[in-house]
What we know:
Elements: E1 5-9, E2 14-21, H1 34-48, E3 53-60, E4 64-71, H2 79-87, H3 100-109, H4 113-131, E5 144-148, H5 152-162, H6 164-167, H7 181-186, H8 208-220, H9 233-242, H10 256-259, E6 262-264, H11 266-278, E7 289-293, E8 296-300, E9 307-311
Amino acid sequence: MSRLPRIKVSGDRSWYHICARVAGGLNWYPFDNPLIRQKLLALIKKYLAVFCCEAAAFCIMGNHYHLILCFEPFRLLSREELFQRALRLYRDPNKVLLTEKHWKRFNERIFDLSELMRVIQSKFAKWYNRSHGRRGSFWAERFKSVLLEEGESVLDTLLYIELNPVRAGLVERPDEWKWCSAAFRFSRNDSWLIPLSSLVDAAPTSSVNVTYRSLLYYRGAVVSGKKGYVIPRHILKMEQERGFCLSGSFRRKIRLFTDGAVLGSEIVVHDWINRFRREMYYQRRKKPIVHKLDAAIRYSLKEQRFQAVKVS
Length: 312
């Protein structure tokens, strides 16, 4: 059976959870150095401005990092817009984009997840090896990616990765970890991230920030540092209706967020299975994998490594 290709979407807006881990032994934690974390985050922000995508969340740990990205649907950009984006990538775009074919290829690249990750990973690895007198591969393997259905799957994954430092026992509250989008959100330093209003459905009487904080603390069973702060009733009711009947649901490691390939409703995952079966991949699987999180049911495609392919 052919290996399942990496799942990417080009014809619609698409959401991905990315995870990349360093090479070396289990005791090598290069990102423990704040200067190295800052360099990685600076490169991520730099190249997000080149590619047609935005970040919803990130978390940089000692030996790996997470991103949630949203790519725009592919479209043909004007030469002027392409040139402005190319200026952020090349010292002199006129020396690289020589023909119409080059411009067309550049237009395609900046809508491609694999191209974005290739630039970030390679630029960072070259910088690290050069500045630390090191040779060899910096990254352990090709990055992992999970295609997320827009809506609850995106929000669940966002909360899950922002609770990573809490699960690791590094902090008691997610906003105490400076190298995570939760800290940026709580300090109102998140202007470069996708607005919370696009990610969180807030109750009419509640602000988006309060709902976001409540969900994050509920999933992580986190006690707020604010005196008198309690989880609002509508959050508890919503979580009970969704099946997360116990607080702290995301305090344990849940592999479907990093290895599920596609995370979403049963219908969406089933559609991807049928698509791959038509393309002669994944012939054995006929139904989505069912995951039970407390009383909640979630669906994923498979735990497997992937090659690159586009699906329009």
